[in-house]
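Tutorial, part two.
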Amino acid sequence: QVQLVESGGGLVQAGASLRLSCTASGRASRMYAMGWFRQASGKDREFVAAVSGNGDTRYAESVKDRFIILKDRASNTVNLYMFSIKLEDAAVYYCAADPRFDRIDDYISRAGSLEAWGQGTLVTVSS
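Running the prediction step on this input gives:
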């Protein structure tokens, strides 16, 4: 079993930067993919970014070149660095992981059934 705890959300101005963190307890995160999804008000949840057990990364087109996902294996933490934040980035961000999946393709394709989800952290963007 994996438990995830997120932190780092808050109110940020458009154009600013923010870091979200997700710490996993249980099985060592170096062995599986972890990532972030988000859900804006009135919209479906969408994939944001993921990192595999060996460090491969994948980003949604909407955040590519603005967000960076990094895994700190020593602390079992995945950080999402958000730069040049836009109004449309406002959402509840959820960290997710599943020890069954190490490959990012598997992780993304099974987003609806990932085993562990964080409680969500709200990112609010002001103009």
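The chain has a mean pLDDT of 93. In part three we will examine how such features are distributed along the chain.
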